[in-house]
Amino acid sequence: MKFKLIVALVDDGHTDAILDAARKAGATGSTVITSARGEGLVPEKTFLGLNLSGQRDLILFLVAEQLSREILEKIAVAGRFNEEHGAGIAFQVEIEDAVGLKTQLKTLSDEIEDQI
User: Fold this and answer.
1) CATH code, domain with 20
2) For the whole model, what pTM was predicted?
């Protein structure tokens, strides 16, 4: 089975909605790294050297390749990436190999069969 890693850098206010949307679209788990920092086209404002931007979360999803595009699209909708400036970004990367998924392979196989 082939996998993709979906990486999302999001406003922490959208994290729960993104996790719910990804799970409904077929993601079987995630890793959330809090207090990440990002910068887009325009640097965020500071006050006396303190960053005034909101908290960001980095969310990682290791998903079956067949489900990755659907999950990525659901993440974008839940995170309001196309509606709110600076709401977040998500992308997927091909994974060559992964271990530690044996307990999830049956569930993933069943999910993919249901999709086909």
Assistant:
1) 3.30.70.120
2) 0.81
